[in-house]
Amino acid sequence: MTMQHFDHPGAAPRPTGPQIRALLERAREFPQLAEKYRPFSGGDGPVEIERLPPLSAEELRATAWNGIRAGLSRDRGAVLYLGGGTAEQPSATLVPSGLFAADILRDWRPLDSRDVLLNLSRGGRLWPAHDLFNSIAALSGSSTIPYGSPEGGELARWVDFFGQCGATALAADTPTLRELLQFCRSTGRRLDWLRTLLWIGSGLDSTVTGLIGQLLPEARVWGLYGSVESWAVAGNGPDCDRNVFHPLPHQYVELLDGELTVSTLHRQAVIPLLRYRTGDVGEFADCRCGSGRPAVRLLGRMADVLCFRGARFSREELATLARAVDEVLDAEAVVLDKGLPTERLQLRVRLRDGLLVDRYQEEWIKECVLSGHLTLSQLSLSEPESIEVVAEAAFRQPAAA
């Protein structure tokens, strides 16, 4: 395992010994982590963070969910969010009721009291961005229109209203932002009222970046990089490169074999995040904003990670769910038409010997996979045709004449 040098100008100073000890002490509340970090928990001497083993997504998922089932949320004043995963082993996290909003605003201040924020971020148990943006607006003294993500054909009825309700700023997750901008481009609608754009996610793809440049050339764009598991990790602003982010002071970022790992140093953190492997690939960078603050450039994702309509998935997790269906021998997941209105998740399956496949067989496999995955089942409610199961041609039942 290769670690990028800490003395790179884009790297932040190492966490202090007391900060690392506090994280290890918090980890002792969780049986899985207590065992993982046992060799480093004894004594009073200094512990260098690079000596600690990284935390995988699977380990974090099991740790958090087992803790929640055991009553971790009691007497915490915390909020529970799900980031997806399966029904048996969801990807869950607990964050303080303040959602770290005040800490984020110390280094990332997109709004002030003159702004009216139209919040189109998705709400609900799988989309915490909506709540976070509402909190950021409230602490900034901004007024808020907490509309939520438009469903179905609502954009056509509401996009003109957005400009009449006094909004000056827009907050959106990346799928909602893409849908809105593609709609405006195809219909010739304008967003002249929009002065400030806020987004959150794992990065902007080239399609969204191009749409922003084409339709919102004067807007000041503020982005937060993060996920449900790691929460907001880093932010950028109008003077930064689109794919370069400055880690928040309570989030320590390293690079292991090019993969970003995150340690949450905040004393109010409920779930101990210690060298968590994000699945994102990056490099330390110098930002054009000239602030001199530590910065990382996002370059992509690890091979097992795919992103579909703003949600992140493990390819192997989806394949395992498909292989759990008796008829399926093997499977792989791919995203087609990335960034386009026709973007869809395709689960390619190979059936056991002797089985022919028709549309009903594929729908049955799709139903089984959806019933076992929290995020996919949520996405399928609004866009059922964006998720499909297909079999290799050699196994397909010929269509009736």
**Count of strand segments:** 18
Task: Please state the average pLDDT score.
Answer: 87
| Amount of helix | 25-40%
- Give the low-pLDDT segments: 393-401
Q: Which CATH class of the domain at 308-395 applies here?
A: Alpha Beta
Radius of gyration: 22 Å
Name of the CATH homologous superfamily of the domain at 308-395: ANL, C-terminal domain
Q: Strand order, biggest sheet?
A: 4-3-5-6-7-8-9-13-12-11-10
**Which overall shape is indicated by the principal axes computed on the Cα atoms?**
globular
> Approximately what portion of the residues adopt beta-strand conformation?
25-35%
Give the CA-CA distance, first to last residue: 57 Å
From the 3D coordinates, which CATH architecture of the domain at 308-395 would you assign? 2-Layer Sandwich
Description:
The structure is a single chain. The protein has 401 residues and is α/β, with parallel strands linked by helices. It has a domain at 308-395: 2-Layer Sandwich (GMP Synthetase, Chain A, domain 3). It is 29% helix and 27% strand. It is built from 12 helices and 18 strands. It has an 11-stranded mixed β-sheet. A 3-stranded mixed β-sheet has the order 16-17-18, covered by helices on one side. Strands 1-2 form a two-stranded antiparallel sheet. α9 links the parallel β6 and β7 (220-227). The longest helix is centred in the middle third of the chain and has 14 residues, at 174-187. The N and C termini lie far apart (57 Å). The model is unreliable at 393-401 (pLDDT under 50).
